């Protein structure tokens, strides 16, 4: 998807008369800076049907993509081709930059949490399991800059039941992700990725 976008832009610049109608409709999904790119490990894919895999990229403003992401699009398909078919996994989606990256006092803001996902489903991008937090769209506040939306995939220990405490259920913000991971012995993520976006009006 990202490579195709770059090729289309290059062709638009090289082919006479291609500027204007074709070039103006082309969007480039820029890859993240080296520092942010380092978070992306293990070939985890985050797929929104209208644009494809947005892993490790900025969501561009063109084509109204940022607005659609925050107002229209439902939850993405999350695919992990290396999942072990008979194992279970826990998927976490968080914003570590709430209310902004310079002062993330509400870190982590929980956007989606699903446990008991079968590896066979993960391989094809089906997130079926126990939904502990319903998916909520990325909606960065105006003038808060870029926010990272991180996806962390953990292997769920056999016979382990994962849940949220009543206090955690009452609040999405200021979630202690480390305590959650430690409480259920999830260890390090088997794969992780993120995309960056900001308020569509900025």
UniProtKB/TrEMBL annotation:
Belongs to the phosphatidylethanolamine-binding protein family. PANTHER family: PHOSPHATIDYLETHANOLAMINE-BINDING PROTEIN, PHOSPHATIDYLETHANOLAMINE-BINDING PROTEIN 4. InterPro entries: PEBP, PEBP-like_sf, PEBP_euk, Phosphatidylethanolamine-bd_CS. Residues 1-20 form the signal peptide. It comes from Lonchura striata. Keywords: Signal. CDD domains: PEBP_euk. The gene is PEBP4. Gene3D superfamilies: PEBP-like. The keyword Signal applies. The keyword Ligase does not apply. SUPFAM superfamilies: PEBP-like (SSF49777). This is Phosphatidylethanolamine-binding protein 4. It comes from the Eukaryota.
């Amino acid at each position: 998807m990202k490579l195709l976008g770059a090729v289309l832009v290059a062709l638009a610049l090289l082919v006479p008369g291609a500027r204007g109608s074709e070039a103006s409709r082309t969007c480039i999904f820029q890859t993240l800076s080296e520092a942010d790119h380092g978070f992306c490990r293990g070939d985890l894919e985050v797929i929104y049907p209208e644009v494809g895999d947005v892993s490790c990229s900025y969501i561009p403003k063109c084509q109204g993509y940022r607005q659609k992401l925050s107002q229209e699009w439902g939850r993405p398909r999350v695919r992990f081709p290396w999942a072990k078919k008979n194992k279970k996994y826990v998927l976490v989606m968080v914003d570590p930059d709430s209310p902004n990256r310079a002062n993330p006092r509400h870190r982590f803001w929980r956007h989606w949490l699903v446990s008991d996902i079968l590896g066979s489903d993960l391989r094809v991008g089906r997130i079926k399991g126990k939904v502990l937090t319903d998916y909520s769209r990325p909606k960065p506040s105006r003038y808060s800059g870029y926010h990272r939306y991180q996806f962390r995939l953990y292997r769920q220990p056999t016979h382990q039941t994962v849940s949220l405490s009543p206090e955690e259920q009452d609040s999405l913000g200021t979630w202690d992700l480390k305590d959650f991971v430690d409480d259920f012995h999830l260890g390090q993520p088997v794969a992780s990725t993120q995309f960056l976006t900001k308020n569509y009006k900025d």
